[in-house]
Design goal:
With about 190 residues, the protein is an alpha/beta fold. The chain has two domains: about 120 residues, 3-Layer(aba) Sandwich (Dna Topoisomerase Vi A Subunit, Chain: A, domain 2); about 55 residues, no CATH class. It is built from eight helices and six strands; from the N terminus they run E-E-H-E-E-H-E-H-E-H-H-H-H-H. The longest helix is centred in the N-terminal third of the chain and has 13 residues. It is elongated and about 55 Å long.
C-alpha cells in the first residue's frame, strides 16, 4: 500500500472506497455536486490546505470537471495538485448501465493507473505523521461520548473554523490532519 503524504479529494464514496484499498491517505469526498451548496464541506477543504497541499482527483467527465473547477475557485492554486484519470469508455461493475458520457470514473479505473498517478506523492515507506489524537482525548475534553457532547462539539468546531455539523469520527480525522495532540490540548484549554 502506498502512503500518500497529502489529503486526496475525490467525488464520491465509491471513489473513496477504491482508493482506501490502494493507499494509506486521508481521503475526503465532495459528495458529488454537494460541494456547490455545502459551505461546511468547502470550509473543511480550505482548512486542509492550511497545513499542506491537497491532491484533487475527480472523474474525467463533465461533472468531474465542474467539481474540479469549483474547488479551484475556493483554494489557492499553489495548494492544489491536479491529477487526472484517463478517459476510458466503460461501465463501473456496480452499475447497471454506463454513466451519461459512457466513461469510467475514479472507482472504475484500473488500480495500476491510480497507483502510477499517486506514486510520486508517496512518503516512500515512511510513517504518515498524524496528530495522535484519539477518541479518548475527545471524550476527555468533552466533544464526544457524553450527554452534552453534541453542543460542545458544535461550539468547539465553530471556534476553530471547522464545519459545526461534523460527526465525532469526521472531527477526529480532521483534527489529526490539522493539529498535534499538544495543539489540541492548548485549544481545549482556551
Amino acid at each position: 500500500m502506498l502512503r500518500i503524504k497529502y489529503p486526496i479529494i475525490v467525488e464520491g464514496k465509491y471513489d473513496k472506497i477504491k482508493l482506501d484499498s490502494l493507499v494509506n491517505a486521508t481521503i475526503i469526498t465532495t459528495g458529488g455536486f454537494e460541494i456547490f451548496n455545502s459551505k461546511e464541506k468547502a470550509l473543511l477543504i480550505k482548512r486542509l490546505c492550511e497545513k499542506d497541499k491537497i491532491i484533487l482527483l475527480t472523474d474525467s467527465d463533465g461533472g468531474g470537471h465542474l467539481i474540479r473547477s469549483h474547488i479551484k475557485t475556493i483554494l489557492p492554486p499553489d495548494k492544489i495538485i491536479n491529477l487526472y484519470i484517463p478517459r476510458v469508455e466503460g461501465k463501473e461493475k456496480r452499475k447497471r448501465s454506463p454513466s451519461k458520457e459512457g466513461i469510467l470514473g475514479v472507482e472504475g479505473v484500473e488500480k495500476e493507473t491510480l497507483l502510477k498517478l499517486l506514486e510520486p506523492f508517496s512518503d516512500e515507506g515512511e510513517e504518515r505523521c498524524v496528530g495522535g489524537i484519539t477518541k479518548s482525548d475527545l471524550y476527555r475534553y468533552g466533544p464526544s461520548g457524553r450527554d452534552d457532547s453534541a453542543n460542545a462539539r458544535k461550539s468547539f468546531l465553530e471556534r476553530i473554523g471547522l464545519p459545526s455539523t461534523m460527526s465525532p469520527n469526521a472531527m477526529l480525522s480532521a483534527l489529526n490532519i490539522l493539529y498535534s495532540k499538544d495543539e489540541l490540548e492548548a485549544l481545549m484549554k482556551k
